[in-house]
Amino acid sequence: MSLRTGRRMLAAAAAAGLVLGTAACSDFSGADIEATTHDQTDTGDKRETILGSGGISLFGEGESGGGGGALGVNSFLWRATLDTIAFMPVSTADPFGGVILTDWHSTEEAPNERFKLNVYILGRTLRADGIRVAVFSQTKDAGGQWRDAAVPEQTGTKIEDAILTRARQLRRQTINSK
Questions:
Q1: Helix (H, G, I), strand (E, B), or coil: what is residue 103?
Q2: Residue 72: pLDDT band with limits 50, 70, 90
C-alpha cells in the first residue's frame, strides 16, 4: 500500500469516527449545560413519555440519569475528545461507556515510532478529573519488529489538558448561542 493510500484510509477512518461520534451528541439541551456546572443529582423530576414516567432505561439508573437515548458521559468532553484526536484512526467509540480507543498511528516525520490512545470519559460533568488518557508507544527495532517504548508521564496529562480546553470552548459556544 502506498503512503498516499494509507493517508487517505487514515483520513477516512478519522472522518467516520467523527461523524459517528458527533451524530450521537449533536443536540445539546439545557440539561447538558446544567450537568456540566453542577453534580447531577436525582431531583425526582421524570420526563413524561409514551412508555410512562421517566421513559425506559436500557442501561440502568446511573449517573447519566437513565434515559436510553442520551449519552452516558458529558457531551462536551465527548465531542472535544473526538476533535482533539481527529488525526488518529478511531477503532472503538462507545458514547454510553465513555471509551474511545484509537488504532496505532505513525507520522511521516517518525515512521519508526507509533502510538495509540485509550481515552476514558468518567462521567456526565465537565470536570478536570472527568477524563483519563492512556498513551502507548512502540518503536521499530533493527529487525523491523515493533517493541513497546516508554512514554513520558506528562504526555497523557497534556492530551487531557487539550481535551479539557476544547470542551470548555464548546461549552462557551453553546451557552453563548442560546
A1: coil
A2: confident
